[in-house]
Specification:
The protein is mainly alpha-helical. It contains 16 helices and no strands. Helix 3 (33-62) packs antiparallel against helix 4 (71-92) and helix 11 (223-233) crosses helix 12. The protein is elongated. The relative contact order is 0.13. The model has no long low-confidence stretch (mean pLDDT 93). The structure holds protoporphyrin IX containing FE. Residues 39-40, 43, 97, 105, 116-118, 120, 123, 283, 287, 290-291, 296-300, 302, 305-306, 309 line the site of protoporphyrin IX containing FE (HEM).
């Protein structure tokens, strides 16, 4: 076998010959466009790795029955945590680009029109694979392919196709819906504290609802109606009441060993949402410093548009907002022994 050579293995020549600034041709007359290109390329490489990890996690869940204490589950959590570390890294990279000033940027900015990070296919694929749908986005009209600076027709089709496959969010909701916690056989010995009987709701949830009501302060009256809506009636956003109940249950009893990995999973999804919005925030602040209130090269309103995405673009908002409905540890209903011992978590 031939000796493998470092630069051949990582195809370094291709990468190092892929920087072609539009504003200068020799290093003597160079400006910050080189930094601008390289930093975008580095981002795109990390986006590629994130997509790779996301697909792996999606396939674990697509296979259906996964054991919550199995290798599959810990692999999924591990890969999602890796995505978190990559996002931390690329958040820090913003400060490298910020060493370029607004005037430095102006030297080549107009040559970029109408291209923009808005057209980053991989960034859109990450959003779509996580579960952010095109029709839930801020200023959906910006995605029309006839608009200058929008995604190309082929890229938009690819993003729409990913949306029609199972997104990570849909898979997580299905996994939560399969949780077998409320099989009657586990609850025979459970002693309901609340007096109310209900055909409709499980005795555990009647107790939990009571405990939650008692935990509310005077000016939080409307929270109980919201609790009923989220956990018994409509669910929240794209997440069904059954899945919301499972997410709350895992969060409340996360100290039990069987819930350790499921809780880690939910927590890491919230973390990914948070890190992505940290990126949106840093990018938005940088853009304001760089172009002030001017429109973007991609033709959006610029900083105003980016600020809108910051408050609206979350994939796992519902999971994060489970915190609204927690009660103190000491007030939690005691779980029956049979449930603690027997739930096998083969879901
Ligand atoms: C001088 C630096 C930068 C400026 C002034 C800038 C400016 C903008 C502006 C104004 C937009 C809105 C679309 C438009 O109308 O153009 C945008 C979107 C975007 N930019 Fe940047 N950008 C910069 C650097 C970067 C870098 C380094 C990345 C890394 C890949 C990036 C990725 C993106 C992405 C993914 C979007 C779409 C955001 C969304 O729609 O949620 N940008 N950028």
């Amino acid at each position: 076998m031939d000796n493998l050579y470092y630069s051949d293995y990582i195809e370094l020549d291709k990468i190092l010959n892929s920087q072609h600034p539009k504003s200068f041709s020799s290093p003597e007359e160079g400006n910050d466009e080189m930094l601008f290109i390289i930093i975008h390329q580095v981002y795109e490489l990390w986006f590629k790795q994130i997509i790779f990890e996301l697909d792996l996690v999606r396939h674990i869940f697509i296979r259906g029955r996964i054991n919550d204490n199995s290798d599959d589950m810990s692999k999924a959590v591990h890969k999602l945590k890796r995505i978190g570390r990559i996002l931390e890294l690329i958040n820090q990279q913003v400060s490298v680009l910020e060493t370029m000033t607004a005037l430095d940027f102006l030297e080549f900015r107009n040559l970029l029109l109408p291209a923009s990070g808005f057209q980053s296919r991989q960034f859109r694929l990450i959003e779509a694979k996580l579960g952010l749908k095109l029709n839930q986005r801020y200023k959906r009209e910006y995605y029309r392919t006839t608009r200058r600076g929008s995604l190309s027709e082929a890229d938009l089709q690819e993003v729409s196709h990913v949306e029609s496959e199972s997104t990570l969010k849909e898979l997580i909701v299905q996994w939560l819906e399969r949780m077998p916690f409320f099989d009657e056989s586990y609850w025979r010995e459970y002693r309901q504290a609340a007096e109310l009987n209900s055909e409709e709701h499980h005795k555990f949830w009647i107790d939990y609802r009571n405990a939650y009501r008692n935990s509310l302060s005077e000016n939080e009256g409307s929270r109980l109606a919201e609790f009923d809506k989220v956990f018994f009636e409509a669910g929240r956003g794209d997440v069904s009441p059954t899945a919301m109940r499972a997410a709350l249950f895992i969060t409340i009893y996360r100290n039990l060993p069987i819930f350790h990995l499921p809780f880690e999973l939910l927590n890491t999804l919230s973390e990914i949402d948070e890190l992505l919005s940290n990126w949106r925030y840093r990018h938005f602040m940088m853009v304001r410093r760089m172009i002030g209130l001017r429109v973007g090269t991609g033709g959006t309103s610029g900083a105003g548009y980016l600020e809108g995405t910051l408050s609206q673009h979350y994939a796992f908002r519902e999971i994060t907002e489970v915190a609204t409905f927690l009660i103190e540890r000491s007030k939690r209903p005691l779980l029956p022994k049979a449930l603690k011992e027997k739930v096998s978590f083969n879901v």
